[in-house]
UniProtKB/TrEMBL annotation:
This is 17 kDa surface antigen. The keyword Signal applies. Residues 1-17 form the signal peptide. Keywords: Signal. It comes from the Bacteria. The keyword Signal applies.
Length: 79
């Protein structure tokens, strides 16, 4: 059951990776800002921690840090 949950979250992460476009009104999309990436990282981190029966708060905190830090990755799409 854990493997299927991991595959599900991986599929959802890949499916939402295309949401990095602007909303058509000149405003950046959710994943184009550091705060938006931190929120998305917190959601994914909490869901992954819950799937592995770990502490959801710690998973959300680590996910938020990773999401917020993803704006500064060299060679990747920056915020």
């Amino acid at each position: 059951m854990r493997l299927s949950t991991l595959i599900l979250f991986g599929t959802l992460a890949v499916a939402t990776a295309g949401c990095v476009q602007s909303n058509g009104y000149g405003q950046p999309g959710m994943l184009q800002t550091q705060g938006g990436r931190a929120v998305a990282g917190a959601l994914v981190g909490a869901a992954a921690a819950d799937a592995f029966d770990e502490n959801m708060v710690a998973g959300a905190a680590l996910g938020a840090l990773a999401g917020g830090a993803s704006c500064n990755v060299a060679g990747a799409y920056s915020c």
